[in-house]
Amino acid sequence: MTDTRVEESLFQIIHCYHEYAAREGDAETLSLEELKALLMDNVPRFMETLGRKEPYYITQLFRAADKNQDNQICFEEFLYILGKLVKDYHLQYHRQLCAHYCTQHSLY
């Protein structure tokens, strides 16, 4: 049996996390620079279209996720970041649906 789209996506997220975590220092955590590279390389349109590529956004996201304040993002803390990204993507999805609906029904 082949993996479902969600199963494959989950595997890809885990693989991506470890690929970037292994770049420097502890291979099980992300530094701020590793997190920046991961986000800019893997969700560039999201980072660009929502104005999220600004350095302060990634730094604030890093600080909010770093619950134990060790200046590293472990996988559990990375899940917090993923949650924030998925939430933003979801809001963007709804905005696009609304804009499409309003255009189709002459509400603009």
From TrEMBL:
<keyword id="KW-0106">Calcium</keyword>
<dbReference type="InterPro" id="IPR011992">
    <property type="entry name" value="EF-hand-dom_pair"/>
</dbReference>
<dbReference type="GO" id="GO:0005509">
    <property type="term" value="F:calcium ion binding"/>
</dbReference>
<dbReference type="GO" id="GO:0042056">
    <property type="term" value="F:chemoattractant activity"/>
</dbReference>
<dbReference type="InterPro" id="IPR034325">
    <property type="entry name" value="S-100_dom"/>
</dbReference>
<protein>
    <submittedName>
        <fullName>Protein S100-A15A</fullName>
    </submittedName>
</protein>
<dbReference type="GO" id="GO:0043542">
    <property type="term" value="P:endothelial cell migration"/>
</dbReference>
<dbReference type="GO" id="GO:0005737">
    <property type="term" value="C:cytoplasm"/>
</dbReference>
<dbReference type="InterPro" id="IPR002048">
    <property type="entry name" value="EF_hand_dom"/>
</dbReference>
<dbReference type="GO" id="GO:0048306">
    <property type="term" value="F:calcium-dependent protein binding"/>
</dbReference>
<dbReference type="Pfam" id="PF13202">
    <property type="entry name" value="EF-hand_5"/>
</dbReference>
<dbReference type="InterPro" id="IPR018247">
    <property type="entry name" value="EF_Hand_1_Ca_BS"/>
</dbReference>
<dbReference type="GO" id="GO:0046914">
    <property type="term" value="F:transition metal ion binding"/>
</dbReference>
<dbReference type="InterPro" id="IPR013787">
    <property type="entry name" value="S100_Ca-bd_sub"/>
</dbReference>
<feature type="domain" description="EF-hand">
    <location>
        <begin position="58"/>
        <end position="88"/>
    </location>
</feature>
<dbReference type="Pfam" id="PF01023">
    <property type="entry name" value="S_100"/>
</dbReference>
<keyword id="KW-0479">Metal-binding</keyword>
<dbReference type="GO" id="GO:0070062">
    <property type="term" value="C:extracellular exosome"/>
</dbReference>
